[in-house]
Amino acid sequence: MEIVMAFVVGIIFMAATYLMLSKSLLRIIIGTGLLSHGTHLLVLTMGGLKNGAAPLLGEHAAQYNDPLPQALILTAIVIAFGVTSFFLVLAYRAYQELGTDNMDRLRGTKINE
Amino acid sequence: MNNLLLLPILIPLFTAVILIFLNRFTVASRWVSVLSLLSTVFVSVLLFQKVRTDGIQTLNLGNWEAPFGITLVSDMLSALLVLTTSVIAFACCLYSFRAIGEEREKFYYYSILQFLIVGINGAFTTGDIFNLFVFFEVMLMSSYVLLVLGGTKAQLRESVKYILVNIISSSLFVITVAYLYSVVGTLNMAHISTRIAEVGQPGILTVIAVLFLIVFGLKGAIFPLYFWLPGSYYAPPAPVLALFGALLTKVGVYSIMRTYTLFFPHDPGYTHELLGVLAVITIIVGIIGALAYWDIKKIIIYNIIVAVGVILFGVSVNTTESLTGAIFYLIHDMLIKAALFLLVGVVIAITGTSNLKKISGLIKNYPLLGWMFLLSALALAGIPPLSGFVGKLLIIKSGFEAEAYWGAGIVLMSSLLVLFSVMKIFINGFWGIHRTYEKEEKAPVSWLLISPAILVIISVLYGVGAELVYPYILEAAETLTNPSTYINAVMKE
Amino acid sequence: MRTNDLILQTVTKVILFIILLFSIHLFFAGHYYPGGGFIGGLMTAGALVLLLLAFDMKTVANILPVNYRIMTAIGLLFSIGTGAGSLLFNVPFLTHAFNDVYLPILGKTSLHTAVLFDIGVYLVVIGVTMTIIQTIGEDE
Q: Deepest of A64, B1, B19, B70, by most Cβ within 10 A of its Cβ?
């Protein structure tokens, strides 16, 4: 199962990288979202995949799942949610202000244009 | 258990929330903000005293036992850095009153500033690797907002890139933590250290070490990963720039210092060698940038990169003496960079430009500004008896002792070139023919000079009183080279 | 062209309350079962977004004159305050206290300080989500 997950995560990362390398800002944002999803799946896989019972609810099962990666993912999801929405609003503002979502046109560091 | 070490995080957090309510009352929010930072400084001094007398302080959040819950740890290094951070934040906040403009103040500027301090102080204090990630994110989120606040075209454009770089590095951070968790099965930094010592750092852990270097290197701007820094830091106004330049990169440097001494001291032949080489290249790249530009902001920004290189070279040599030097130089650099950026802000407020070729003869009308700039420029280059000297001396000396001749030689040379790059500003900007500038009358110079004056005075005292500070820095370095004190304090066996 | 969204509006009026009730259920279930402040808050925000979709921004602002930024701040204050309360009793930050109390009607109920913390989270999530939606949706 871990092997399958490794491939899944790899494919997601590949797609994310492809999207982030494109010129449109919207695609880049989707790419970052995809990247964080891949990361969360990776954390889940790294904690070990097994058919255990939910932990902390009594000592009745033979095997329990590790709750820690799930807690980490929850935290990371919340953070990714915040960052992505901030990025989206920023991109929208940048589009309004600069009149383009093409990264090529956003080049340069000159301050007075 | 000691709740004191939480207060430098909790006070700014509370203030940040209160400032959201006070948003409409600009004057009130200014003073609430400054008073809270002043009390943060006070609490940090208390914490420093406590660490000095009673050794490492720990706090298990939510009363969960050490390796299971989140632990906050305050050793000498983190207490010193928290203190420095609070002082710099206080100075920058005072400076912002007249420099940041009503527009930004209305958009929660002070509140976000407090959140930034929460993130930085938290990152310095936490003893849990995932919690470090969370505090990093708090810090980064605030930095995104501070960077974009004001919404000029350049700011929007630069923040898009800055955010993209940081999202990628945050994802890498989570990936690295996941790998580390799968190998050692714990997140408590002291516990990770003992587990790694048990398995003796096999190859996979070296990979993780390099991943950590990439993650923190992106934040700390080391050689191949510094490309985002000059552009992004150029956009925001002076007080924000001072906060970023003095604090953000240093959090990355601190994290490298912590992980490389606590987790990965077992295979220095690969990891520390790599760090050393990258540090030296970082210095060279930074120097080239600092010499090439004729823009005062850019010159100082490239000097950040040089300083990061110097500190990391000290870390890579990895002896008690070199780490003492690195910590000494780290604190010096935080203070002096903040002072320099604030002074540059004053120059820009007077002249309305940061192009060195359009500025000259400032010292005639603003002698105090001129002398303070000279003093901090000399301190930056490391002229004795100012504060940069001791740190660099220790780093170079230990470098030669560890037979890293190339690195130590380049650090030595870099001091000279750094001196040249900042003297260029002094000679061209402050000497020469006196000019008048359009905005000159309106600039509130005397108010703006208060904060850099505070920082320059502290920095001079830090340099002259090096003899007095040295024992504490040495203690901080000894905790780093000897992780067992840290581990014992956290795990309490 | 004016779109005819009569069906959406009518359905929303009914469904809105079901979603809100379910979100409150999720919130209280959170202590022992899946759920909690974050999920509950997101679901409430979802209900409000549905309202925004069915009617326009002005109507919704008239029905619910809430400043979501202040709501976020109140939520944060709740959460931090609950955590910081433990400082008064000289136990570590965020230490959790609970007790079984006999309440009229409800009978024996276990009360936790974690619920106060969760109320904070609930408010923050609604506040933040709605602020984001409003920022993007404000100008047509």
A: B19
Distance of CA C86 to the CA centre of its chain: 24
Q: Nearest-CA distance from C76 to chain B in Å?
A: 7
> Given CB atoms, is B175 within the 8 Å cutoff of chain A?
yes
Q: Specify the CATH number for the domain of residue A18.
A: 1.10.287.3510
Q: Residue B182 is encoded by which pair of tokens?
A: 């799968």
**C100 to chain B, closest Cα gap in Å:** 20
| Residue A106 to residue B235, Cβ atoms within 8 A | no
Q: Kind of pairing, strands B71-74 and C98-103? A: unpaired
Residue A55 counted as domain residue = no
- The per-residue DSSP string of B31-59 comes to HHHHHHHHHHHHHHHHHHHHHHHH--EEE
Tens-place pLDDT, residues B89-121: 999 999 998 888 888 888 899 999 999 999 999
Residues 6+ apart with CB under 8 A from C12: C50, C51, C53, C54, C55
> Is-contact B253 B306, C-beta < 8 A?
no
Q: Which residues pair with C101 in a beta bridge?
A: C109
User: Which pTM does this prediction carry?
Assistant: 0.94
- Chain A within 8 Å of B292 (Cβ-Cβ)? no
Q: Sort out which chain A residues have CB atoms less than 8 A from C136's CB and list them.
A: 88-89, 92
Range of the domain at A14: 2-48+66-106
The whole-angstrom distance between B174's CA and the closest CA on chain A is: 7
